[in-house]
Amino acid sequence: MALALAAPAGALAAQQQADVRRAQQAYADADFARAIASAHRALGQPLGRLDRVVAYEVLGFAYAALDSSRQAQEAFRQLIFLDPNREPDVNLVSPRITSLYANALGQVLVVRRATVDSATFVAGQGAAAVRFQVSRSARVVTRIVGQGLDLPIDTQLAVGATRVDWDGLGSDGAPVASGDYQVVVTATEGQNDFAATVPVRVRHGAVDTLQHLSSLPGYTEQPETVRPPRDWRPLGVSALIAGVAAGASFALGSSDLSGESRREIGGASVLTIGVGLFLSLRRAEPQPVEANIRYNQLLREQLAQRNAEIAGQNLLRRRQVLLTIVPGPSP
Amino acid sequence: MRLAIVFASVVTVGSVAPIASAQTVRIGIHGVGLTHTEIAPERRAEGGGVGGLVSVRWRRLGLDLSGHVARMDSVDGGPKLFDLYQGDVRLSYRVATGLALEVGGGRRFIEPDFAAQDVGVTRAGILSEIRLSSLGSVWGRGAYLLAPKFSGGGSAGLAVELGFGAGLGTRNGRFRFRVEYEFQRIDRSVNDVAVPIQTSLAKVGADVGF
Q1: What does the CA dihedral A34, A38, A43, A45 come to, rounded to 10 degrees?
Q2: B129 near B136, Cβ under 8 Å?
Q3: H-helix or E-strand containing A266?
Q4: Under 8 Å between Cβ of A233 and B178
Q5: A249 closest CB neighbour out of B135, B162, B187
């Protein structure tokens, strides 16, 4: 029984599609009258959406070829209502046809080419762009619908290409829950209105935290002590003192007592000069460099301040939600 | 007896110095090498011994007390063996960085008597000390000896002394190695006969600061 019903239905669908194909073929053969007849015959039957689109398109093209502008524009208006995003390819179609299509487009109110840009941002700090085109000047309301939410995000008078930004926040100011939504763009002009929907998928993620700094980029700490270069002053001074004193004692020595032993002054001079030599050869202790100490202190203060700022930012980031918005599956 | 006097004075001053709110007190010991020549080159004696030092620094003032004892022996047929005891006092006042005026006195005893002259002097001179680093310093001093007195009588025309030394210590000043040299010339004359006295003294020792 089911097979008996299915067979006539399948045959009917094939017949409908055959009329559409015949119309396309007739148009390709420049038999515009037959193309119009076939298209009308097909449209007189319950067609699928795509077949109706094709039928209206062939009908509009054929009428345009026959200079029947009014009928062509009517066919194009029906086509635009069915599929606002479909338009003649200017590389393949006569400019006369495209101009008639443009005229038809100006006569109807539709929202075309509605898209949502993929975006990843912190909720409330970025936005996903909703783009669309409005064929006529109209009040356009953009809403987010889904997951129990119906949130208007923008209302404006618009015509032509329009952009609306969505910050990912719900009506309570919190990020919307993850899940599938629809962006509904409704254009209203008097009694006419038109709605276009774009499915989007929202995912939640954690915001990356900032790493604490161990040093400030571009700045390095300076050595706080430097070892002075070797100083030969102690040797020079001790040799000078010993030499002058020894020379003076020789000079002051009594001539009546010549032949004096020199062991005391010799030994004392050697030891005195030895003290100076030791102090000269001894590696000097590193000396503090006040400017570098102050510089490093400032660096450390800056680093601590920066890390405190990072800690504060991380505290905030841990409470934030990273939203990823991508086009969703078609309904 | 004389040795006891020398060291008693050193120890006494050393013991009361901290009570006097001294900024720095140093007490040290040293070995001495000494050459003593009197009248003629042939009467030269050389010897060695030990000594002690107490040094006090308070603000611009300084007080140095030192003494030593040495056993001397004749060289080239000079005087026979004798012991030499000497004590010195030096009071200084720092008038500028590294420069101080110095006054004081000294007394030298010889035993047995008349093996050489006992000498007493009063000195006035200058002391210059230069710091080489945080660890060490050198100094030089010169003084004129006023009216020296001798156990054998007589008087002196020119009487001078000069010296230099160096110290090397720890950073905190607690311990210090010290070497010092002193030269003394006294042109003594008795009844217009020149009987000069000349000594060279080297000290090597260490002291501790408080």
Answers
A1: 150
A2: no
A3: helix A263-281
A4: no
A5: B162
Q: Does domain B2-16+25-209 have CATH number 3.40.50.12240?
A: no
Contact, A229 vs A208, CB < 8 A?
no
Does A6 score more than 50 pLDDT?
Answer: no
Q: What are the pLDDT digits (tens) for A219-264?
A: 999 999 998 888 899 999 999 999 988 888 888 877 777 666 678 8
Domain boundaries, chain B: 2-16+25-209
How many angstroms separate the CA atoms of A97 and A103, rounded? 10
- How many contacts, defined by CB atoms under 8 Å, are there between A and B? 129
For chain A, how are helix, strand and coil distributed in percent, rounded to 5? Answer: 45, 25, 25
Alpha-carbon distance A288 to A299, whole Å? 17
The contacts of residue A185 (CB under 8 Å, 6+ apart) are A111, A114, A130, A132, A140, A141, A142, A195, A196, A197, A198
Q: Which fold has domain A2-107?
A: 1.25.40
Residues of chain A with CATH 1.25.40.10: 2-107
Q: What CATH code would you report for A111-201?
A: 2.60.40.10
Nearest to A248 among B34, B46, B162 (CB): B162
**Closest CA–CA distance from residue B47 to any residue of chain A (Å):** 11
